[in-house]
Structure formats: C-alpha cells, structure tokens
Design brief:
Radius of gyration: 19 Å
CATH superfamily of the largest domain: Tetracycline Repressor, domain 2
CATH architecture of the largest domain: Orthogonal Bundle
Number of helices: 10
Helix content: over 70%
CATH class of the largest domain: Mainly Alpha
Order of helices and strands: HHHHHHHHHH
Shape: elongated
Structural class: mainly alpha
Number of domains: 2
C-alpha cells in the first residue's frame, strides 16, 4: 500500500483525480490536469504520490482497506447465523459504496482492466473478500439455513448485485429515478438484495428480518 502523509492538500488532489479519471479516463488524464483541477502545484502530486500511477494505487488500496474492514465487521457476526451475517455484510458494503459513489465507480472500472496493479489487488484484498463470502455461504449450507447452491456462483451473483449500480449509474437512474449517492437508494436497494437472499439462498425466511440495521 502506498503510504501517503495525511493533509488537506492530499485530499484535494485525490478528489480531483477521482473526478478526472471518471470523466476523462486514467490514460486521458495528465498530472497537469489533476494539478489544475485541484488548484495545486504539480510538485505537490509528486511529493504525495510520486506519479499518476502512485495516485491511482493510493485510490485502490485506500478504498479496499476500508471495504475489507466493513466486510470483517459483518463477518464477525457469523455466530448469529449465516443469513444475519450475510445481510449485514451486504448492508455495510453497499452503504460504504453509496457514501463514495465516484471512488467506487473508478475502482470497479479499473478492476476490469488486466494489469499488474489489479493482479496485486486481487491477490490480496479480493482473496480476503472471497474467503469471507465463502465461509459465510458454507456455514449457511452446513447449518441448513441456505439451499445447496454453488458457492462460487453465489459469490459472483452477490458481487454483481453490489457493483452494478456503480458501473451503470445512468441506467439505474433511468430505471429507478434515483442515484446511488441518495439515501433512499441505499435503503431500498439493501432491502431488495435482502429479498434476493431470502428468495434464492435461504431455505426459510423470517419476514421481520428483511432489513437489518447496522450493529
């Protein structure tokens, strides 16, 4: 992980980079573009991040550090039951992404590109993510909470549900008339994923647990 000193200038640079990477693309954005958007000297970017790749790496690692922390908080509830645990994980991850929609969109787009940086992220953070999801699903099947589905395919489906609104934001807004950063979306979409878990994964479902508040 890139170790970067904290400070307002750094945060302004990161915000400017995320905006430009999303609108102009990583390759189409220069250090000068970022400096101009952030209203800082280009030397500040070199000081904090060395170069443009260091800045992107910082965005990736800082996103996944918190993402995995949220996942682990949900996973710690596994002794309360696999369904309860999975729904809590889903709510935590979705709310985190909804609080940072532009960063989430950037990360998910970059993760679709085969690069050395992406392979390193996949071998660390995404291996952890896959491990926790697998353990929850296997516990649910073992405890007879979940039907006997393919665990790898179930993980892919959960990942797809969590990522789709941020990869297809305009389509979501056209269909639902709401954007992922709006609180209504986080509440409603969490409830819908919980219903999917009830209908697809769970053998039985307790109606009063369709929506779990964060503990």
């Amino acid at each position: 992980m890139v170790k970067v000193p904290r400070g307002p200038t750094r945060d302004v640079i990161v915000k400017a980079a995320i905006s430009l990477f999303n609108t102009k693309g990583y390759d189409g954005t220069s250090i000068r573009d970022i400096a101009a958007e952030a209203k800082v000297n280009a030397a500040n970017i070199a000081y904090y991040f060395r170069n443009k790749q260091g800045l992107l790496e910082y965005c990736l690692t800082s996103f996944y550090e918190i993402y995995i922390e949220e996942l682990e908080k949900g996973y710690s509830l596994l002794d309360k039951g696999a369904e309860f645990c999975l729904k809590n994980i889903v709510e935590r991850l979705l709310r985190y992404q909804c609080e940072h929609p532009q960063l989430t969109r950037l990360i998910l787009r970059e993760m679709s590109i085969d690069s050395q940086m992406v392979r390193e992220i996949m071998s660390t953070y995404l291996v952890k993510e896959r491990y926790y999801f697998r353990k929850v699903l296997e516990k649910g099947i073992e405890a007879n909470e979940f039907r006997r589905h393919s665990v790898p395919y179930s993980i892919l489906q959960i990942k797809g549900l969590l990522s789709m609104p941020f990869l297809n934001t305009q389509y979501v807004s056209e269909v639902l008339y709401v954007f992922p950063h709006e609180k209504y979306f986080a509440d409603k979409y969490t409830s819908e994923i919980h219903r999917w878990i009830n209908a697809v994964l769970c053998k039985e479902h307790n109606g009063n647990r369709e929506h779990l508040m964060l503990l």
